[in-house]
Write a structure and sequence with these properties.
Layout lengths: L2 E11 L3 E4 H5 L6 H8 L3 E4 L8 H16 L8 E5 L10 H9 L5 E5 L5 H15 L4 E8 L10 H4 L5 E11 L9 E8 L7 E3 L13 H4 L3 E3 L1 H22 L9 E4 L4 H11 L10 H4 L6 H11 L8 E8 L3 E8 L1
Parallel strand pairs: 4-5, 4-6, 11-12
Antiparallel strand pairs: 1-7, 2-3, 6-7, 8-13, 9-10, 12-13
Helix pairs in contact: 3-4, 8-9
Bound molecules: coenzyme A (COA).
Coenzyme A (COA) binds next to helix 2, helix 6, helix 8 and strand 12.
């Protein structure tokens, strides 16, 4: 008997506050034109604390919708994987929190921190667990409230990120025919240590806790050397996507939808060109969401499903890069 994983439902969690590039013009020395042309971002969403929104509330919205779309009962979920770099609290972690808010009474719970690669790495983990026969119904959530980690005086980072959440339900299929059934066909992940800490949230961990005298120097914020990250992201995403296509014996022309990490439109275009996947096959929501880190790919997939853009049998290639550095790709037949 063999087991494979299939994606049976997705859901979106949408923060209510919309922040436009024009809003940033009032906070830092920037312009709508600079942000659009250098990144492709027009607006992003932040959780609204005044309305009681947290990462958990938007993840709950995504998780409920995914269960509904997958026609799956909360008690049938046997594992939840929550990918995030911006948990409401480090302890209890997000996946344990969600077992209560979603009523996952029979689930084990894992948080995975792989920054922007988080959701797809979570799907890679879910696929491996299902192939091993260990779990049958897994919820994978990618969610971030990174607005809380933005230095609103640092124009080179604060305009880039947004909040958001999405969830997918992944189910076990017995003895699938890999040549035609709807399954995850393959995935490949790598890490390359970011020794220079070109992309980091240095303060608030145990190396420099909040009470430490050095905390004021590093702060609780995301810091980034954008050009270093740009080069590594392009290199990593191209490598991973090429290797997954080779592993699954799939040509770029076979791909129906390319769903890359949404950090910068120029990275997406460059990677697409190097992979020979045309822009018409590439899904973009960066313009409306900014970089939602672990949530980028799943918010794309959930939106595409809401718009009925993905048909049964379509080959969907997900391709990500994130802090750490961590990068990888996953190919699924819908
Ligand atoms: C961040 C990023 C958009 C910057 O674009 P860039 O073309 O590399 O721009 P640079 O960093 O070279 O900065 C060019 C100039 O714009 C300025 N600048 C930076 N942010 C700005 C902003 N929001 N508005 C206006 N000017 C800005 C810089 O200060 C610099 O000015 P200077 O030449 O006077 O020093 C780009 O490097 C990027 O997207 N990198 C990858 C980010 C990423 O993928 N992150 C997440 C990975 S998971």
């Amino acid at each position: 008997m063999t087991w494979n994983a299939t994606i049976v439902g997705t859901g979106l969690g949408v923060p209510s506050k919309v922040v436009t590039n024009k809003d940033f013009e009032k906070m830092v020395d920037t312009s709508d034109e600079w942000i659009r042309t250098r990144t492709g971002i027009c607006e992003r969403r932040f959780i609204d604390r005044d309305k009681g929104e947290t990462l958990e509330t938007i993840a709950l919205q995504a998780g409920k919708k995914a269960l509904e779309n997958a026609k799956t009962k909360p008690e049938d979920i046997d594992l939840i994987i929550f990918a995030t770099t911006s948990p409401d609290t480090f302890m209890p972690n997000m996946s344990c929190r969600m077992t209560a808010s979603l009523g996952l009474v029979n689930a084990a719970a894992i948080d995975q921190n792989a920054a922007c690669s988080g959701f797809v790495l979570g799907m890679h983990t879910a696929d491996s667990f299902i192939r091993s026969g260990q779990y049958k119904n897994i919820m994978v959530i990618g969610g971030e409230a990174l607005s809380s980690a933005l230095d609103m005086k640092d124009r080179s980072t604060c305009v880039l990120f947004g909040d958001g959440a999405g969830a997918a339900i992944v189910q076990a299929v017995e003895n699938a025919d890999l040549s035609k059934d709807s399954v995850i066909l393959g995935s490949k992940f790598y890490a390359k240590a970011d020794v220079k800490e070109s992309l980091s949230m240095a303060g608030g961990g145990t190396r420099t806790p909040y009470w430490h005298e050095d905390f004021a120097k590093v702060g609780p914020y995301i810091r980034m050397q954008g050009q270093d990250v740009f080069k590594e992201a392009t290199r990593g995403m191209v490598r991973a996507a090429k290797e997954v296509m080779a592993q699954c014996e799939v040509m770029p022309s076979d791909i129906k939808w390319f769903v890359p990490h949404q950090a910068n439109l120029r990275i997406i275009e460059m990677v697409g060109k190097m992979l020979e996947i045309p822009s018409e096959k590439t899904y973009i929501n960066l313009d409306r969401w900014g970089n939602t880190s672990a949530a980028t790919v799943i918010t794309c997939l959930a939106e595409m499903e809401e718009k009925n853009m993905i048909n049964k049998g379509d080959l969907v290639l997900m391709d990500v890069f994130g802090g750490g550095f961590s990068y990888g790709a996953l190919l699924a037949r819908w």
